[in-house]
Amino acid sequence: MPDPTARITSIDTYDVRFPTSRELDGSDAMNPDPDYSAAYLVLRTSAADGHEGHGFTFTIGRGNDVQVAAIDALRGHVVGRSVVELCADPGVLYRDLVGDSQLRWLGPEKGVMHMAIGAVVNAVWDLAAKREGKPLWRLLADAAPAWLVSQVDFRYLTDALTPDEALELLTKGKQGAAERAADLLRRGYPAYTTSPGWLGYSDEKLTRLAEEAVADGFTQIKLKVGADLDDDIRRCRTARAAVGPDIRMAIDANQRWDVAEAVEWTNALAEFDPYWIEEPTSPDDVLGHAAVRRGVHPVKVATGEHVQNRIVFKQLLQAEAVDFLQLDAARVAGVNENLAILLLAAKFGVPVCPHAGGVGLCELVQHLSMFDYVALSGTTEDRVVEFVDHLHEHFLDPVMIDRGHYRAPTEPGFSATMRQSSLDAYRYPDGAFWAADLAAPTPEARA
Fold it and tell me: Are 99 and 213 in a shared domain?
C-alpha cells in the first residue's frame, strides 16, 4: 500500500561532463569539439520504498552550469509535493512548471528553462514508472487513452490536433497492442547508427566503423556533413563504398546552411543516394525547411533535435516541411510534451525517427518510440531510433543493441539512472576525473 504521506524531500543536482572532445566523438560541422554533458538531477522522497526519480538534459560542455542553475530554480515547485499525487498525475506539475510566469518570461516554452522543466518532468516519470514496477514504455502503453490525453497541453495545438482527435488516435492504438508488445520484446525496435560518421574521424576510421555497423546488422548509417563540400564528397564516396548500395546512408548538416546553400550542397551529394538530409538549416525556419524539401527531392528532409517545443513541430507538419520528425527526449518539456509531439506526428502520418546519442539520450528516447509502436502508430515502418555507441556504461540500465535493433527495456523506470561512481568521477569541476585533469600542468598532460 503506497504511503499517502510520502513527500518529495529534495532535488539534488549534478553538473556531469565527459571529455569526448579529445577523441572528436560527437564532432560535426557546427559543433567541432563537444564535451558531452548532462545537467542531472535526483528526486528523493520520504517513501519507505526507497525509489528515486532520475532525470537530466543534455548539453555539450560549457553552459552545463547554467542548465543546472535552471533546474535549481524549479526546486520550490517540487519539494514538498505528495509522491502519490505527483506520480498519479505528472501533468499537474508539468503545467505548474510551464506556467510559472516569471520563469516563463525567459522563454516562453523554449531554451534553457524549458529544457530544465523537461529534466524535472522526466525525473517524475522515472519515479512513477519505478513505483509501478514497469519500464516507462510499458507504463505509457498500458495507460488508459483518456488519461494519456489528460497529460497533454493542447494550448496552441487545437488548429491541428484536438483532444477528441488525440483520444481517437490512442483508442485506435490500443487495438493489437498486446501482440505488438510481445513482438517488441521478441524482436526489438529498429536502430540506425551515427557512430561511423563524426566529422573529425579519419577516412580509415570511417570505413572500419561503417563496415562494422553493417556486420552488426544495421541497415542505416549517418554521416556528418557541411564543413567542406570536397571533403563531404570524398567521405560520402568512402562510406558508400564501405556499406554497399543497399544500406541507407543519411547525412546531417547540423544547421550549417542557408536555405539555398542547403539545396545546392545536398544536390551535390545526391550521387551517393543519401536517404535524408538532417537539420539542413536553422531549426526555427519552418518555411526554409519546406523550401529545402521541395528543392532536394527525392532526398528526404529530417529535423527536430533542436526544435524547441510542440508548437514549432506543429508548424513543420502543417507546412509539409519534413519527411521525418526527430523528437528529442530532453530538448522539450519532458514526456508530457513529447506525447503531444507523437500525437501530432500520428495525426499527420509522418514517421518519428528520434534523435539520440549524447549522454543518455539513447536510454531515454527508446521508451518513447516503443510506446509509439505499441500503443499509438502501431508500426515501425520507416521508423528508426538513432544509436551512438558511447557513454552507455555510465547507466545502471544501459541500452542493448541486438542485430541492429534496440532491445526493449524490462527494468522499471525511464533508464535514466547514472551510476554513482560516474557522478563522483565526472561531476564538474570537483569530481575525481576533473579535479585531476584541471590540476595537470599542461594540455598534453590533461589529454
Answer: no
Which residues are the active-site residues? 224, 355
Task: Give Rg (Cα) of the chain.
Answer: 21
**Nearest residue to 169 via CA among 348, 315, 317:** 348
- As separate numbers, helices (DSSP H) first and strands (DSSP E) second, the chain gives 20, 12
Domain count, the chain: 2
Q: What is the rounded distance in angstroms from the CA atom of residue 303 to the CA atom of residue 317? A: 11
The reply to whether 117 and 196 lie within a common domain is: no
193 and 103 in a common domain: no
Pair 193, 324 in one domain: yes
pLDDT tens, position by position, 180-230: 999 999 999 999 999 998 888 999 999 999 999 999 999 999 999 999 999
In terms of residue numbers, what domain contains 96? Answer: 8-133
For residue 447, tell me if it sits in a domain: no
Indicate whether 284 pLDDT > 80. Answer: yes
Q: What is the identity of the amino acid at 181?
A: A
CATH of the domain at 25: 3.30.390.10
| Contact between 296 and 278 (Cβ < 8 Å) | no
Same domain, 225 and 289: yes
Please name the residues in contact with 372: beta carbons below 8 A apart, sequence gap of 6 or more.
Answer: 342, 346, 352, 383
200-209, 284-293, 369-378: segment of lowest average pLDDT: 200-209
CA-based nearest residue to 234, from 190, 203, 194: 203
Say yes or no: 260 and 407 in one domain: yes
Tens-place pLDDT, residues 121-171: 999 999 999 999 999 999 999 999 999 999 999 999 999 999 999 999 999
Cα separation, 81 vs 391, whole angstroms:
33
